[in-house]
């Protein structure tokens, strides 16, 4: 498995790198750190520009920007875990991967149906892989039809052990946490409520997603520590306010996994999609509020008057995440697709997750 963590340090990639770290603990994974080649930034821009009009569909499979890595051993599996379609440019840097790997998987976290027509010259690179995994459930059928082959959905996940507040529960000193994309109506209502009730309301004051991290592991630790010290955590579907990019496609955002694992009470939207219904189908997984913020104050004050209910929601969220949404369960699905057996390390981690859940 290759990684571009030394080159691409955007905040939104931190979860992907967290996933890779967990997988390396679970299996005999050789993680290859890609390095930039000469004039990396310029060459990658040029390559992207050419691909948009490359009717030969060849350029997407050429290595133009990265230092070449030669494989010298034989492997059961080659896995390209990509944040988006543009990460496919990293694949050709691994020279000879098709000759040295028994089977291959391309796992793309974010690929929206609306963008498929304009990505036609990019998608040709997927034909080099034996299996295709997508992080957005709504896109699976469309990609399967385009490639004329079955593709798979594996939902996002979280390092549930890192995010879990158990067995040593910290004090929830943050009243409400609202990071990432937020509804402006909810945000304004929360600023007013926080001032009136003297609440500790944590939120972003700048655009975070494309910002570079100094250290992605420290960033994930900070998010985890904030989440498991938050009473309430706002959640929303992926790109909920960017209709031009999603064209109405509804998918589960990463905050649902993080907030539930942290045992926070999730406030926000219940996504009307099968991926949410199958992944978060327990009582009070999300307490729904209006995007315009008109009922935020009423909902929070009502919940705060029910401490026993809040504790029950918190414990259930954390327990369900431990048993469903850790990266080990995603890796088990990957191995199943590749026809490989689970490892002893996976069983050890699953047992640890169950043990923590039983103590809640």
Summarize the entry for a quick read:
The protein is an alpha/beta fold and about 350 residues long.
Topology:
Elements: E1 2-3, H1 14-26, E2 32-33, H2 40-51, E3 69-70, E4 75-82, E5 94-95, H3 97-100, E6 101-108, H4 120-123, E7 131-134, H5 140-147, E8 152-153, H6 160-163, E9 174-178, H7 184-197, E10 201-203, H8 216-227, E11 230-235, H9 243-246, H10 254-261, E12 265-268, H11 274-279, E13 287-288, H12 296-304, H13 307-324, H14 327-338, H15 344-358
Parallel strand pairs: 1-2, 3-5, 4-6, 6-7, 7-8, 9-10, 9-11, 11-12, 12-13
Task: Provide the structure class.
Answer: alpha/beta
What oligomerization state is this entry in?
single chain
Question: How are strands sequenced across the largest beta sheet?
Answer: 10-9-11-12-13
Number of strands: 13
Average pLDDT number? 96
Sequence stretches where pLDDT stays below 50 over 5 or more residues: none
By DSSP (H or I, 4+ residues per run), the number of helices equals 15
Strand content: 5-15%
Biggest β-sheet description: 5 strands, parallel
Distance between the termini: 35 Å
Helicity, in percent? 25-40%
Note the overall shape. globular
Which radius of gyration do the C-alpha atoms yield?
A: 21 Å
Spell the H/E element sequence.
EHEHEEEHEHEHEHEHEHEHHEHEHHHH
């Amino acid at each position: 498995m290759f990684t571009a963590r030394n080159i691409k340090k955007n905040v939104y990639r931190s979860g992907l790198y967290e996933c890779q770290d967990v997988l390396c603990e679970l299996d005999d994974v050789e993680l290859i750190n890609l390095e930039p080649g000469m004039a990396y930034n310029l060459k990658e821009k040029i390559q992207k520009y050419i691909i948009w009009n490359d009717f030969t569909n060849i350029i997407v499979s050429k290595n133009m920007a990265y230092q070449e890595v030669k494989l010298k051993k034989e492997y059961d599996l080659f896995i390209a875990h990509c944040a988006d379609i543009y990460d496919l440019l990293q694949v050709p840097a691994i020279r000879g991967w098709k000759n040295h790997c028994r089977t291959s998987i391309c796992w793309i976290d974010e690929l929206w149906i609306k963008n498929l027509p304009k990505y036609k010259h990019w998608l040709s690179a997927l034909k080099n892989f034996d299996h295709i995994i997508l992080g957005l459930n709504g896109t699976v059928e469309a990609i399967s039809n385009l490639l004329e082959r079955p593709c798979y959905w594996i939902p996002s996940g979280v390092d549930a052990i890192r995010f879990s507040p158990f067995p040593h529960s910290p004090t929830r000193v943050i009243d409400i946490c609202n990071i990432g994309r937020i509804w402006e109506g909810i945000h304004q209502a929360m600023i007013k409520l926080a001032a009136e009730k003297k609440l500790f309301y944590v939120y972003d004051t700048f655009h975070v997603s494309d910002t570079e991290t100094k250290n992605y592991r420290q960033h994930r630790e900070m998010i985890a520590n904030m989440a498991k010290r938050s009473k309430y955590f706002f959640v929303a579907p992926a790109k909920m306010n960017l209709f031009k990019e999603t064209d109405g496609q509804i998918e589960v955002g990463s905050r649902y996994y993080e907030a539930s694992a942290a045992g926070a009470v999730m406030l926000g939207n219940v996504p009307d999609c099968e991926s949410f219904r199958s992944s978060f189908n327990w009582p009070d997984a999300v307490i729904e509020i209006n995007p315009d913020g008109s009922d935020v104050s009423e909902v929070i004050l009502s919940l705060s008057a029910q401490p026993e209910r809040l504790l029950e929601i918190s414990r259930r969220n954390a327990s369900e995440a431990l048993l469903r949404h850790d990266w080990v369960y995603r890796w088990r699905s990957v191995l199943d697709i590749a026809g490989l057996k689970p490892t002893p390390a996976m069983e050890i981690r699953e047992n640890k997750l169950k043990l923590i859940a039983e103590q809640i």
